[in-house]
Amino acid sequence: MLEKIKKIIIDFGDGIEEAVNEALDNNIEIGKIIDAISEGLDKVGELYENREYFLSELILSGEAAKKGIEMILPRLNKEKSGIKGTVVFGTVKGDVHDIGKTIVSAFLIGAGFIVYDLGVEVTAEQFIEAIKKHNADILAMSTLLTNTMSYMKEVIDALKEVGLRDKVKVIVGGRPLSKEFAEQIGADGFAINPFDAKELCKKWIKEKNQ
Ligand code: B12
Fold this sequence. Notes:
- Helix 3 runs antiparallel to helix 4 (55-72).
- It contains 9 helices and 5 strands.
- The chain folds into 2 domains: 2-75, Methyltransferase, Methionine Synthase (B12-binding Domains), Chain A, domain 1, CATH 1.10.1240.10; 86-209, 3-Layer(aba) Sandwich (Rossmann fold).
- It is of the alpha/beta class.
- Strand 1 (86-91), helix 5 and strand 2 form a beta-alpha-beta unit.
- The chain binds cobalamin.
- Residues 38, 41-42, 44-45, 48-49, 55, 58-59, 62, 66, 94-101, 103-104, 140-142, 144-146, 171-176, 191, 193-194, 197 line the site of cobalamin.
């Protein structure tokens, strides 16, 4: 069933709803379904890089993946941990990729966080305005493009300029990023997947409340 989901994503998405429903009906773990969709997208990315696929194919597979992910997300159980931090989340300016952001955001909501998702192509000014407005504890930024990674540093520098840097923890993520990059730009943390991301955010809130 998981192989089928992966193949459907690679083959531009026809039948994705039925395949995800089938997996959900058979109680396949949500994490495994997300992995199958991600593996499909990885292959699509590879084919695009090798010029076997073009932008139109990237779009079709991306839309199918979004559809599949959106079907899964409401099933994430809310943890009864009582932790309630506030997160402002967005994909940075210049980047429209939002599938990974949506997954991480849903895991945070499932863990009891209030998440303000600002969408894609978010500017430093918009992040700052939202942090102030919602009195956020955490800023989460995503990017999948190498040429927009540096904008994350601009956002962190802007936070310093307006005196907000010590008020929020900053977590960054996305395919081309690394722990080293996060350290270099002055972020507080990096996570490679939604599970590590929610654990790190929970840890920060616990520390803050101690
Ligand atoms: C689908 C897709 C698209 C879709 C996006 C649809 C959407 N709504 O998001 C569309 C068609 C729009 C698209 C457009 C483009 N794309 Co594109 N796209 C992809 C593809 C195939 C999959 C991305 C994806 O969703 N992966 C699945 C998710 C679940 O993984 P993820 O995003 O990495 O997220 C996980 C982690 O990284 C982490 N995470 C993510 N964010 C965050 C944030 C935080 C805080 C934390 C803690 C963790 C975290 O958790 C997530 C869950 O595990 C990738 C290839 C790939 N393998 O990544 C190329 C890819 C990212 N795209 C690429 C390119 C070049 C483009 C375009 C420039 C193409 C063009 N010529 O126009 C445009 C960019 C337009 C723009 N300005 O942004 C390149 C980037 C190359 C580079 N090094 O910069 C890639 C790598 C393809 C390739 N191999 O060449 N794309």
